[in-house]
Amino acid sequence: MEDCLIEDQTTFYSKAEHYWKEVPPTVDGMLGGYGSISNIDINGSKKFLQKFLGEGQGKTGTGCALDCGAGIGRITKRLLLPLFRTVDLVDVTQEFLDKARSYLGDEAKRVENYFCCGLQDFQPQPERYDVIWIQWVIGHLTDDHLVEFLRRCRSGLRPNGLIVVKDNVAFEGVIPDDVDSSVCRDLNVLHRLVARAGLNIICEEQQQNFPEEIYQVHTLALR
């Protein structure tokens, strides 16, 4: 749907890469100046994710997680490393991944891979991940690339694995952001893209207690 808003796909991606290269490698930088919401965000994500983790039939394992659009590793440090034995990070900005090694501290030894790659080109290893966490980054992918990426993620899941998408949602339609070269989709558009990828939404929640002036944020569990 937003592809009609993107005249030049190459420029769409290169502008975003340039934008992020100018962003400081800090929590505040990762959150666009809203570093103060990090605790609320992590606590909401943990409550959402823990519903699915554990042992027994249908439960999602805690072996390995993938942090997509990981930045300096804010989510890896606060959410994924406390819950999973190992974590991989993927981000398009090498400086952020370099910073992650020090930001994660001693726990960095449980990070097995730092992949510097745009998600439109990233290929998860088949059947490697219990959870693939994709937060505040799908707006940097075109519709077709998002569908293809989600399909590749599905192949990267272990049995009972889970893809989690947490992102801004527009009230209606698709809203382009020329500053960071991204789009914000409404829920209907996102649901259609998830269905195109052959995935089912098994749980969906709105993040509570975020500032009123920012977009609503929804979390979707897919498999």
UniProtKB/TrEMBL annotation:
Keyword terms: Methyltransferase, Nucleus, S-adenosyl-L-methionine, Transferase
GO molecular function, one term: N-terminal protein N-methyltransferase activity
Localization (cell): Nucleus
Binding site for S-adenosyl-L-methionine: 69, 74, 91-93, 119-120, 135
A Pfam family of this chain: Methyltransf_PK
Stretch forming the signal peptide: none
Highest taxon, organism lineage: Eukaryota
InterPro entries: MeTrfase_NTM1, SAM-dependent_MTases_sf
Cellular component aspect of the GO annotation: cytoplasm; nucleus
Catalysed reaction equations from the record: N-terminal L-seryl-L-prolyl-L-lysyl-[protein] + 3 S-adenosyl-L-methionine = N-terminal N,N,N-trimethyl-L-seryl-L-prolyl-L-lysyl-[protein] + 3 S-adenosyl-L-homocysteine + 3 H(+); N-terminal L-alanyl-L-prolyl-L-lysyl-[protein] + 3 S-adenosyl-L-methionine = N-terminal N,N,N-trimethyl-L-alanyl-L-prolyl-L-lysyl-[protein] + 3 S-adenosyl-L-homocysteine + 3 H(+); N-terminal L-prolyl-L-prolyl-L-lysyl-[protein] + 2 S-adenosyl-L-methionine = N-terminal N,N-dimethyl-L-prolyl-L-prolyl-L-lysyl-[protein] + 2 S-adenosyl-L-homocysteine + 2 H(+)
GO biological process terms on file: methylation
Main location: nucleus
Entry's EC annotation: 2.1.1.244
Sequence similarity: Belongs to the methyltransferase superfamily. NTM1 family.
Name of the featured protein: protein N-terminal methyltransferase
Biological source species: Cyprinus carpio carpio
